[in-house]
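Moderator note: this is an archived Q&A kept for reference. The question asked for a predicted structure of one protein chain; the sequence and the answer are reproduced below.
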Amino acid sequence: MSGRAVKKMFVWAAIAGVAAAVIYYGMQDELTKVSKEGLLVASGRIEGTEVRPGSRMAGRVVEVLFEEGRQVEKGQALVRIESDQMKLGTMWAESELRKGMSQLAAGMKQLEMAAEQATLAQTQLELAQETVPLQIEGAEKAREAARANVEQAKAQMEYAKATFGRASTLEKSKVAPTEALDMAQAQFGVTRAMVDGAEKLVAQAEAALKGAKAGEKQIAMAAAQLRQARLQVEAGKHQCDAGEASVDSARAMVAIAKSAENDCEIRSPISGVAVARLVEPGEILSGSSPVAVIVDMDKLHLKVYIPSAEAGQVKLNDRVRVYPDAMPDKAFEAYVADVSQQAEFTPKNVETREQRTRLVFGVKLAFKDNADRQLKPGMPAEAVIRWKENVEWEHPTRLR
């Protein structure tokens, strides 16, 4: 055997020895870990639900009111933007509101006047309907009484005339004295005057009756005025309705414009930590542009992936202890909040190609408390999932 071949054999023997030593000591180190039924180790990174508040309107950033890495509260103003379009929209909406209010006021004034006229016309009509028939009835009675007086006066005049005729005949025959003739003549004159007076009263009664009957036209005119007034009332109501509709529409437009102005102040939808500041004063935002990234530090979780062979052992609400790499000796209480219902290949951020080709189930481990804010998104951590009760806890470094 040549020297070169011997030398080559020694090299291969040395390599094999080193490999055996590595395997041996690796197995020894692995055997120091405790394997327990009921405990499962998994690793991942701490995550949180990110919220990215943004503007619904385009505009220029005039002020940023938060600092990156600081706590923000729900409803806290984060960014103020300025938009000429919003200001013009508000001015136009307020102008339309003033126009609608003016139209409504005019309609109400017209309705008020029409209502007054209708009330007056109604009163006049009712008064005419009540008094005119009484006036006609009174005038008719007065006319009948005057006519009766005329008949009575005529009868008296005829009697006086006959008496005067007899007295004249007797006076001519020298049977009756002249004084009797004079008295008969005087009585005849009186009765004739009474007839004339009675006939004048009849004429006056006829005129009064005619005037009373003219009141019937007054009733018709009052009824026509009432109808006209009622039409004006209806017109006033329509104008008021139109004015109210205009006011309601304008108020809605003002509310929309004010809401758009409120959108100029972007507020945090949750309480949490602003982990990223995405805008600076002077920048122009388009609609829906995010201005910050906010994480709710009270609702963090660790996302891990369990091999499909072991996923069936894990169930919701199983207790978990998480050991962040930054605090390897401190355990944080957690629980199984969600187990994926569908297997997937290991995500690409897992280190080795062999691991990425394995089917796994995603498991969400929610932390019970982070009041002291020691846990932060992005921290790598290991978790011990206890899927069987009454099993003693072990540190992940002693489990395999």
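Archived answer notes: The chain has five helices and 13 strands.
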